[in-house]
Amino acid sequence: MKLAALIAGAIASAVALPASAQFYVGGGFGQAKAKDWCAQAGGISCGYTNLGEFKASAGGLSDNAKVNAWELSALAAWPLMNQFAVYGRLGAYRANVKEETNFVGNFEHTNTDLTYGLGGQYDFTRNFGLRVEWQRYAKVGGGDVAFGPNPGDKSDVDVLGLSALWRF
Fold first, then answer.
1. What domains can you pick out in the chain, each with its CATH number?
2. Which of 135, 137, 136, 138 is nearest to 161 (CA)?
3. Under a CB-based contact definition with an 8 Å cutoff, are residues 113 and 92 in contact?
4. Alpha carbon of 45 to those of 18, 25, 33, 63: distances in Å?
5. If you write DSSP's letter for every residue of 47-91 in order, what string do you get?
6. How far apart are CA 75 and CA 154, in angstroms?
7. Residues 83-117: pLDDT tens digits?
């Protein structure tokens, strides 16, 4: 219920945009880490390759998860100098996790929860800037799995990223 209220508030805010609101297009890259998927199983090593893919293994057993998410978030920035600002982000995401294991089968989980983050932005020109950001997708995963090493587990996914944006 709280999540529905958050999404409704974000949509209402978008409809009632103030005159100073800006629209932009951006792209970026980064690394994601979902430590809880690996740490809770005890003795499993965890690594990541390709943003959104997590791999855990121990004693010939493996668990690979691919994560995709759509999000709607609001960003509030505070200028510190002429061209530099810090910002906070708050929103909601809808994630899909496809998990493949060689010991209990394959699973797919979909869930919705909060995302939030902090970052810094440097504007090279009025229309072009770069951002460095940490963002968390809270409690990704879960589902109806009643067996396996971590049945129904969810993990916070942290993303460190660098992105460029173009304002219009």
1. 2-167 (2.40.160.20)
2. 135
3. yes
4. 48, 37, 13, 11
5. EE-STTEEEEEETTEEEEEEEEEEEEEEEEEEESSSSEEEEEEEE
6. 25
7. 999 999 999 888 888 888 888 888 888 889 999 99
State the Cα–Cα distance between residues 19 and 66, nearest whole angstrom.
40
* Number of C-beta neighbours around residue 60 at 10 A: 7
β partners of residue 111 = 95
pLDDT digit string, tens, across residues 50-87: 347 777 888 888 888 888 888 888 889 999 999 999 99
pTM of the model: 0.69
Beta strands in 102-153 (DSSP E): 106-123, 128-141
